[in-house]
Give the backbone structure.
Amino acid sequence: MKKRNGFTLVEILIVVVILGILAAIVIPQFSDASEEAKLSSLVSDLQTIRSQIQLYRAQHHHGTANLPGATETALTFAESMTMYTIKDGTEADPQAPDPNGGVYGPYLLKIPTNPFNDSAVVAEDGTIGNGGAASGWEFNTTTGAFNADDSVPHGAL
């Protein structure tokens, strides 16, 4: 009897079909996990930013300047949250504290990136920054509401 060296074409095809079936079952599981991870990251970022907005408001209890990005401070939301400020919400020098209340912030090291559209731009009151690019976040300077910008479908980016 002749000794066989290797596999037949039928045996190889059966293995390839089995691997294809397993891949078809496993790959969607990873896709769902990726979306869940993005959603979890988004929720965590929203909680962090919203809590820092509340801290900013508590420390800057001076009229309408108690919201980051208030028009009278001349700072954007991102600047208000990532820079040192004084009680009236304007930029401060951390080396020279304000005699009327000290220096506050920064509340965030940087604005996080929205995991669904990869943008860290904050649109204030519906305006979109960065030359018309999609924003990652939306902030209402009147109400203080901070939300993720979901106006661009995920597949369109």
In short: Residues 12-150 form one domain. The first strand starts at residue 122 and ends at 124. The two ends are 63 Å apart (CA to CA).
